[in-house]
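Two folds, back to back.
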Amino acid sequence: MSGLWTIFRRELAGLFFGPLAWLLLFAAMLLNGALLAWYVGVFDGDVDFSISMLLGHGLPYWTVMAVLPPLLTMKMISEESRAGLLEFLLTAPVTDQAVVLGKLLAATAFMSLLWAAALLYGLALGFLGAAPDWPVLFGAYSGAVLVSGLFCGIGLVASAGTSTPILAAFLSFVFNLVLLLLPFLKDLAGATPENWQGAVFRRIDVVARLQGSFANGVLDTAHVVFFLVWTGFCAFLATRLVESRRWR
């Protein structure tokens, strides 16, 4: 795909050359380190469960997931559109798909680096004589990366749909929040395990898919496909929105 690698390097460099990404990375890693130490103490030294809390079972994980991707992606398309740089980029010898996928991969790579801190924590615990179950840790990390890709894709759709970065971040955060609150909305929709509403909620329950497989060290291909397909759908929508700017 023409220009994909170039866009990816450009966006990733842009993230690390700016202060916002470093501040977000520092704050999130500091929070995760403090939480892991607290989890290990609360759960009587259960390292594996403490790490699973850090990568999917704990509320702080989902809070970071709902907030950080919108902040990372809010400027990727909307700011370039407002500044007139997007029109220049769209006339360059790169495809619209490459533009969107390059930005998506850059944002996901940043989130992957954030969650990779859990691997370092696992090594540190191993040196202290409390080595984690590595298959569980790698499974939880893989799930965190897949969920990050989906939420970054949602952020890019919002960023492509508006020329105001703050509005893009707000819309993305609201959609993320609705997606995460779906398990609590089942009763309002009259969903039960027996009716079709319950089946729909089970299929789109992101939290249950992560906690029921990846966070326990299980790589279920059905869940992998779920996240990849929906991330691809978000990339498709963002691409269509970027293409529409050519005709404005």
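---
second:
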Amino acid sequence: MSFLESDGWMGGAIYGGIALVLLYMWASDCRSQRTGGFPGASWAPLRVLIIAGIGGLVLTLLETGVEYGLGLTEEQSEMAVIAIIPVLAAAVIEEIVFRGYLVVDHKGRGWLIGSVLGFSFLFAVIHPYLWSWEEGTLSFEWTAKGMFSTLFVFANSLWFYTVRFGIGNRSRSLLPCFVAHGVSNFSVWAIKGAQGFWVW
């Protein structure tokens, strides 16, 4: 990702700015209760937000624990400290795109579950753990760490969809998704720092 590069801080700042604008527009739709605006533009009960955040944290801690158990910790990639900006921005942008738009929720339970599984798979494989793009060349890297990380991205995606379409979220608000994804991403960033994988 460009924000991990030493000269990529501006790209991260722009990405963060886009997320703030989208979040503001989404919240405006919530306040005005405007129909036809952003998907999931409604508020959610506090208990749902707490459950969503706890789930995001538990998944991250589980991933970290299994990495230790499998001896994969040293294969972690480094992350720039400033990456906290795009890391949190992704919790807004990716949720609006995937849990907001990329789901089929008006054609019955079968379509909903099928789309959740399909788009969760897409969400997992677009994260560059099994592939890389360098100097215009796409290459695949079938490593144990890459497959493990991709599996947990898939699991996280399932959780994000779950907190939108279940867990007491009757209005199908995206807010629990923002919280779950934000907690997950922030905890990954913090754990990398604790493990010594931050770069300044």
